[in-house]
Structure formats: C-alpha cells, structure tokens
C-alpha cells in the first residue's frame, strides 16, 4: 500500500522549497534510510499502512511543514480527511477478509 494513498497530505511535499538547506538534508536522510528498507526482504504482505516508513517519517515532516505554509487550510483539511477515510476503508476491508 502506497504511503501517498493512505496519507495524501504527503503529496504536498512536492510544493516545498527544495532550495533550503534543511530540506536538502532531509531528503538525503530519507533516501539514506529508504535504501536499506527497500532492500530488506520482508517489508510486509498483509498489512495496512507502512510500518517501515516510521524510520524516516520524522524527516518527511520537515519539508511537509515548509510546504504547508503555502497551502490553503481547506486543501489541507480535505487531504487529511481523505487520508482518514481511505485508511478506515482499508481497515474495514482487511477485517472483513479475515
């Protein structure tokens, strides 16, 4: 399951100011953390969410907060609400399949 499907607010990272040094360092840290995660053989089969993304989630917040300064509050609310609803849908679908 894609991290961007369950948390669509993370799509706003593309609107961040990528010229800032803290954002560049954050992206490098995310990449350095992501490479071993992707090469690990057991990233989960039947799970809801992205538990291995917790390793680099704090570094996702840095560019996200910078991008949120430019975004309308209604857009942020819609993205957060859609993420909650999508997650609930997949949780109920997962539980019904057991």
Automatic annotation (TrEMBL):
<keyword id="KW-0812">Transmembrane</keyword>
<keyword id="KW-1133">Transmembrane helix</keyword>
<keyword id="KW-0472">Membrane</keyword>
<protein>
    <submittedName>
        <fullName>Uncharacterized protein</fullName>
    </submittedName>
</protein>
<feature type="transmembrane region" description="Helical">
    <location>
        <begin position="21"/>
        <end position="43"/>
    </location>
</feature>
<feature type="transmembrane region" description="Helical">
    <location>
        <begin position="49"/>
        <end position="68"/>
    </location>
</feature>
<feature type="transmembrane region" description="Helical">
    <location>
        <begin position="75"/>
        <end position="96"/>
    </location>
</feature>
